[in-house]
């Protein structure tokens, strides 16, 4: 039953506290940077498509990183990877913060940061069951979701205010500092653990391509796992409103503060949704709710076709974000517990790189559509298509669950 393992029980684990605090810093910094880049590019170009492109570059290169680099999370000590990637990303963001940086250079630097993200995330998620054990893992994932979304909410809302007071370059420097702070915390508080699959680091001579192919097959090994992966990715497509925040605010005459409020709507709903779901829904019932929850996450976005004002739009995004995060949290939990530890890092990294790539592609495509219509119409069409896809996946998941039930903790 929900509550069998309390939040207090999980926070008693010192390493988990350190991981939460480190992630809180770096995620908040990431969102500050996304607000800064969106405002900076839209102010310079006036193009929703280029704004969507810049936002996409904070996500899309993750596909390559997920396919070819996440195996590192199994081949090398995961704590060491987390530490060094945080430090490297901090250095790259400092370069992005240089004023008058050419647009193409900015794109390359942001793309490299995105390329490294799936390696970091796969190492982190694969390490979490080792830190908590299976009995605490589900509750730990809920806490992690709340932590991430709280940091995103603070970063998005704070980013709008900071840009209004200072400028985007100052915000980017703050982002770099959060990466360095996270790296220091991981270095001091997490214990060293050996690689989960050290053979792959030396004696195993298979190419990265063949390893990725085998892991990809593992993710799509049965109908249940396929449904989980596709529902996870769908949640990124319907969250298109995040990457379109600047054009959406401009449609209603809003400022950078309005951009921050729109961006903060999704994480606000996510915090509420993750808390209520983890506290009041029994663990054995959670997988069965994934289909209806996926539909509930997409449907509010479709209502943007009605051209609602900013207040109603923010409310819709709060609802969509709440249901969407529950789906992401539960699908990730179920997949992680089914995966063997020797492949867990790469498999999680590849599934999350698909999620990240979809998060970046959707605003790029919506930006192109928005330049021909407007931001609200473009977002609404994505919501409508997402609702239709969610209905199909809900049916597929219901059939799969009856024959291959997903284990709970």
TrEMBL record:
Subcellular location as annotated: Cell membrane
Residue ranges crossing the lipid bilayer per the database entry: 48-69, 169-188, 227-251, 257-277, 289-308, 314-337, 349-369, 375-397
This protein's record includes keyword Transmembrane helix: yes
PANTHER family in alphabetical order: INTEGRAL MEMBRANE EFFLUX PROTEIN-RELATED, STAPHYLOFERRIN A TRANSPORTER
Primary localization class, coarse: membrane
Gene3D superfamilies the UniProt entry points to: MFS general substrate transporter like domains
This protein's name: MFS transporter
Keywords assigned: Cell membrane, Membrane, Transmembrane, Transmembrane helix
Signal peptide: none
Occurrences of domain Major facilitator superfamily (MFS) profile (ranges): 217-409
Membrane topology recorded in Swiss-Prot or TrEMBL: Multi-pass membrane protein
Highest taxon of the lineage: Bacteria
One Pfam family cited in the UniProt record for this chain: MFS_1
């Amino acid at each position: 039953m929900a509550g069998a393992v309390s939040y207090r029980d999980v926070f008693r684990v010192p390493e988990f506290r350190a991981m939460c605090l480190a992630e809180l810093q770096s995620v908040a910094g990431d969102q500050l940077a996304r607000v800064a880049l969106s405002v900076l590019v839209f102010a310079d170009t006036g193009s929703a498509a280029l704004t969507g492109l810049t936002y996409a570059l904070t996500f899309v290169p993750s596909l390559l990183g997920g396919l070819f680099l996440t195996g590192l999370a199994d081949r090398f000590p995961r704590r060491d990877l987390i530490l060094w990637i945080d430090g490297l990303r901090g250095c790259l963001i400092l370069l992005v913060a240089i004023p008058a940086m050419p647009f193409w250079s900015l794109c390359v630097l942001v793309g490299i940061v995105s390329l490294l993200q799936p390696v970091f995330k796969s190492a982190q998620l694969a390490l979490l069951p080792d830190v908590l054990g299976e009995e605490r893992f589900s509750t730990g994932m809920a806490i992690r979701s709340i932590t991430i979304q709280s940091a995103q909410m603070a970063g998005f809302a704070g980013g709008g205010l900071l840009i209004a007071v200072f400028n985007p370059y100052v915000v980017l420097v703050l982002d770099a500092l959060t990466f360095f702070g996270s790296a220091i915390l991981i270095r001091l508080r997490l214990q060293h653990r050996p690689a989960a699959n050290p053979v792959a680091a030396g004696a195993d001579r298979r190419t990265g391509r063949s390893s990725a192919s085998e892991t990809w097959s593992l993710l799509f090994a049965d109908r249940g796992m396929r449904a989980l992966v596709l529902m996870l990715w769908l949640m990124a497509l319907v969250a298109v409103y995040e990457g379109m925040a600047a054009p959406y605010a401009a449609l209603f005459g809003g400022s950078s503060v309005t951009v921050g409020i729109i961006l903060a709507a999704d994480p606000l709903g996510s915090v509420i949704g993750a808390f209520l779901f983890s506290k009041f829904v029994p663990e054995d019932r959670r997988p069965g709710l994934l289909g209806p929850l996926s539909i509930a996450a997409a449907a509010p976005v479709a209502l943007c076709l009605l051209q609602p004002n900013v207040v109603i739009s923010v409310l819709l995004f709060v609802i969509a974000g709440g249901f969407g995060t529950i789906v992401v949290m539960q699908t990730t939990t179920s997949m992680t517990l089914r995966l063997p530890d020797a492949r867990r890092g790469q498999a999680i990294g590849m599934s999350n790189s698909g999620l990240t790539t979809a998060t970046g592609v959707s605003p790029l495509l919506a930006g192109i559509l928005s330049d021909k219509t407007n931001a609200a119409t473009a977002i609404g069409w994505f919501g409508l298509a997402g609702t239709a896809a969610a209905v199909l996946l809900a049916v597929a998941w219901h059939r799969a669950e009856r024959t291959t039930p997903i284990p709970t903790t």
